[in-house]
Amino acid sequence: DIVMTQTPLSSRATLGQPASISCRSSESLVHSDGITYLNWLHQRPGQPPRLLIYKVSQRFSGVPDRFSGSGAGTDFTLKISRVEAEDVGVYYCMQPTQFPHTFGQGTKLEIK
Amino acid sequence: QARLVESGGGVVQPGESLRLSCAASGFTFRSHGMHWVRQAPGKGLEWVAVIWYDGSNKYYTDSVKGRFTISRDNSENMLRLQMNSLRVEDTAVYYCVRWGDDKVMDVWGQGTTVTVSS
Questions:
Q1: In this structure, are strands A107-111 and A10-13 parallel, antiparallel, or unpaired?
Q2: CB atoms within 10 A of CB A93
């Protein structure tokens, strides 16, 4: 199974300031079709997760452009250019490249 | 608007069974693969199972193989998860999730809670 490792596991951000989360996979996430599949999800307390980023860097419909994803191979990053209050919660990276699909442990983002 | 509504959760004893259902609406259900993803209390997300759009393929996480069965009824727009021989460690919120283009989990239900306790 592909192991997804996120750092940090907890972060306190200042409103209006940037924040970033790293995700490393134990194997390359390049699929046999040549595409790298790495997604980021956000879960607010008491809510189901929602998709933010797919295929490393593609913003899902309705996701603000302050969210961006980057990376390649086994190392990936989610960046928030200017943190807003609604960004609190837990962020997960996940790989749908192969089964079983696996998630990172989650990174809890709080506001200072 | 795409919507998924789970039901069937509850409190059971170890070794008992439950069947979860997920009613889909607002999209062409028969065109999408579907997942079950669970989240134990205070823990992260764990993928459980997937079924192809036509039911032709199914995959499971190792810990539920032989105990859980994913199925679908495209005539009723319904996804199901039959859970047998339940264990304490199966306690979680179970989410029904649509498998979208580009391998995304793009629509999530609100979840149904399964508690396995003696």
A1: parallel
A2: 29
Size of interface A-B (CB pairs under 8 A): 58
Neighbours of B115 (CB within 10 A): 15
How is residue B40 written in tokens?
Answer: 């134990």
| Distance, CA of B108 to CA of A47 (rounded, Å) | 10
Region of B54 on the Ramachandran plot (φ > 0 left; ψ -120 to 50 alpha; else beta): alpha
Find the mean pLDDT for residues A89-96.
Answer: 98
Contact predicate B34/B51, CB 8 Å: yes
Do strands B68-73 and B78-83 pair parallel, antiparallel, or not at all (unpaired)? antiparallel
Structural contact between residues A96 and A4, judged by C-beta atoms closer than 8 angstroms: no
Enumerate residues 4 to 63 of chain A having a beta carbon within 8 A of any beta carbon in chain B. Answer: 35, 37, 39, 41, 43, 48-51, 54-55, 58, 60
> pLDDT digit string (tens) for A6-57?
999 999 999 999 999 999 999 999 999 999 999 999 999 999 999 999 999 9
Q: Which amino acid is at B50?
A: V
**What is the bridge-based pairing of β-strands A4-7 and A67-72?**
unpaired
Q: φ, ψ for residue A41 (rounded to 5)?
A: -125, 155
Rounded distance between C-alpha atoms, residue B97 and residue B108, angstroms: 5
What are the pLDDT digits (tens) for B16-64? Answer: 999 999 999 999 999 999 999 999 999 999 999 999 999 999 999 999 9
